[in-house]
């Protein structure tokens, strides 16, 4: 046997051994050591009545639209707040449930627990909605029309679903007559869609004035349970946002000498900006696999078919291949890089005049491993033209990515509480940590806790997701009911001392 043949056989044996070990790791060593069956299987939830569905329908009929910072339908919002106070009057009349209207239109609800010294947890939502192109809808966007068990209307998902999911759950707690053990804070902003400066910012200031410095955890709107998200996985993926991307919009512009179109100089401002835009689109910002995405796909990977499951559960070996696969589609590519989107362009005033100025607006959703400063520097490098000026677009705030909330080990109690509450309602889903690609009001509350989570407790398909901020936004009765049940479980489970702990720490297990 030649030396070359011997080396090839040795190398082949080594490769086979490595792949065999990867397969063993996938099938035998990556099972969830944290048995959740006790809490999930021994859970009882509530029945959601038709009155809750009717109250929700009424809420959709208020056109609580936000157009821009400080510009929103104030009358509709005032009417909506008055509706809430009337519709839930029996709840607000209970001595341990109190509300405060903050800055005229936002609401802060305080639920006093029997344990007065307990650290409160904060549930969040917002009731303002984005405008709707009426001509593109098949129904009136504010009619709450019901077809085949689905309610159509702006806000049915984003985000009156969350507001009324929380309110109906609290209403059920009040009707049970059992006061919660823990203190609860509930914050509903009225301008989240345009930055939250009149709502969430003012609510946070109200908390400071009350002397509240810390909360146990925060749960806000966020990532839904997605059907058919990952090819080869036939289980619903329930992403719980443990961080969210940053945001920056840049104005790229240039100035050249104007002139008559009959005597072009060969270099126009529009041509310079067009090349800059072309460079940005041809050179996406670097891809990165952080621990959040790795952890999520390792969990998904166990449910994939062979051999894809072996690849996605062994990042240590297949990292470059996995990164390549994830970059193929826009929705998965957004998980591993700062995205670049050219959204506006301008330049020129007349067909026979060489314009002196041209510009383009470019929006970036910043990956958690990056920041606004790095994005600006990278954009300048990619454009590579000193004639092009890069500035933060006037009127838009630059937002760095949110810190990653602890979600495993000894510091994963709050995450596990949310995860297990979710599994009690959606038993066949697969919860996993994720990165929220949009921005929420949670950024105004980071000082109160490091445990910040974002989740929509409803099952959506890809086509359903397209209706959020789009046309014919709608929700099924089943999804609405499950949202109420989820928040009821959150309130119930937060009172259980052992609920978020790992099995070895369960006092209830010791008692059994």
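^ structure tokens above, recovered residues below v
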């Amino acid at each position: 046997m030649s030396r070359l043949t011997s080396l090839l056989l040795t190398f082949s044996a080594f490769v086979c051994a490595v792949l065999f070990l990867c397969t063993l790791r996938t099938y035998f060593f990556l099972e969830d050591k944290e048995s959740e069956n006790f809490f999930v299987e021994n859970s009882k939830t509530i029945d959601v009545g038709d009155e809750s569905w009717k109250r929700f329908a009424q809420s959709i009929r208020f056109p609580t639209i936000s157009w821009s910072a400080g510009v929103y339908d104030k009358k509709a919002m005032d009417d909506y707040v008055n509706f809430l106070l009337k519709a839930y009057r029996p709840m607000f009349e209970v001595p341990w449930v109190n509300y405060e209207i903050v800055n005229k239109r936002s609401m802060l609800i305080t639920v006093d627990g029997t344990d007065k010294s307990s650290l409160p947890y904060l549930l969040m939502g917002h009731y303002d909605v984005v405008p709707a192109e009426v001509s593109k809808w098949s129904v009136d966007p504010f009619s709450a029309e019901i077809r085949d068990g689905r309610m159509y209307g702006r806000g049915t998902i984003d985000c009156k679903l969350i507001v009324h999911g929380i309110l109906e759950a609290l209403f059920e707690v009040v009707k049970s007559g059992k006061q919660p053990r823990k203190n609860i804070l509930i914050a509903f902003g009225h301008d989240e869609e345009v930055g939250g400066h009149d709502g969430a910012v003012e609510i946070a200031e109200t908390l400071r004035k009350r002397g509240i410095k810390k909360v146990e955890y925060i749960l806000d709107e966020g990532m839904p349970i997605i059907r058919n998200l990952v090819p080869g996985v036939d289980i619903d993926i329930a992403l719980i946002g443990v961080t969210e991307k940053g945001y920056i919009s840049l104005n790229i512009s240039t100035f050249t000498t104007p002139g008559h179109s009959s005597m072009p100089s060969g270099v126009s401002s529009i041509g310079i900006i067009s090349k800059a835009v072309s460079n940005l689109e041809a050179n996406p910002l670097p891809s990165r696999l952080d621990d959040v995405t790795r952890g999520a796909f390792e969990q998904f990977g166990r449910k994939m078919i062979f051999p894809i499951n072996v690849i996605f559960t062994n990042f240590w070996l297949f990292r470059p291949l996995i990164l390549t696969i994830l970059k193929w589609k826009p929705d998965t590519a957004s998980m591993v890089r700062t995205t670049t989107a050219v959204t506006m362009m301008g330049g020129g005033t007349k067909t026979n005049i060489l314009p002196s100025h041209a510009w383009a607006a470019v929006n970036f959703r910043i990956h958690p491993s990056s920041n606004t400063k790095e994005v600006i520097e990278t954009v300048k490098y990619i454009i590579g033209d000193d004639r092009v000026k890069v500035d933060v677009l006037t009127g838009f705030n630059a937002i760095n990515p949110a810190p990653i909330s602890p979600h495993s080990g000894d510091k994963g109690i709050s995450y596990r509480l949310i995860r297990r509450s979710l599994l009690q309602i959606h038993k066949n889903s697969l919860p996993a940590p994720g990165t929220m690609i949009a921005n929420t009001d949670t950024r105004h509350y980071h000082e109160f806790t490091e445990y910040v989570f974002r989740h929509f407790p409803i099952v959506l398909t890809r086509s359903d997701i397209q209706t959020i901020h789009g046309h014919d936004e709608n929700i099924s009765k089943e999804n609405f009911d499950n949202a109420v049940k989820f928040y009821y479980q959150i309130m119930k489970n937060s009172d259980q001392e052992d609920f978020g702990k790992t099995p070895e720490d369960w006092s209830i297990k010791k008692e059994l």
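The longest strand covers residues 246-255.
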